[in-house]
Amino acid sequence: QVRLVESGGGLVQAGGSQRLSCAATRLTFSFYAMGWFRQAPGKEREFVAAISRSGGSTDYADSVKGRFSISRDNAKNTVYLQMDRLEPEDTAVYYCAADRQNLVMAISTTSDKYDYWGQGTQVTVSS
């Protein structure tokens, strides 16, 4: 079965950086746009970033624009989220997700469009 496995979470100080990885198995990775979402305690899951099948199109939540960067390596079936200038408000469980797309440049920013989800990785930013 399809598996998405996130890694790279942990504790970091405000202003620091962290890179999350998400490795996909049993999935034709290049057929899927990929996204990152997060959920803080007591809050709904929210969109963070997404990247198209080809990597040529990306989108970000306003709250992370200019600080986070999403990328992918189709040869390694892996998507990344580079997070810089982290803030305490970025503390959350981060999830990667896969969205089957026919168009190589299409991306989705709503969770209901995604077909598969990882188990999540905790990111905690201390002030």
Outline the structure in words.
The structure is a single chain. By secondary structure, the protein is mainly beta. Helices cover 0% and strands 50% of the residues. A hairpin with a 4-residue loop joins strand 7 and strand 8.
Which geometry do the CA atoms define?
A: globular
The share of residues in extended strands comes to over 45%
Instruction: Note the main sheet.
Output: 7 strands, mixed
How many β-strands, per DSSP? 11
Question: Terminal Cα separation, in Å?
Answer: 40 Å
Count of helices? Answer: 0
Q: Can you give the mean pLDDT?
A: 97
What structural class do helix, strand and pairing data support?
Answer: mainly beta
- Low-confidence region ranges: none
Oligomer, anyone? Answer: single chain
How do the SSEs run, as a string of H and E?
Answer: EEEEEEEEEEE
Radius of gyration: 13 Å
Helix content: under 10%
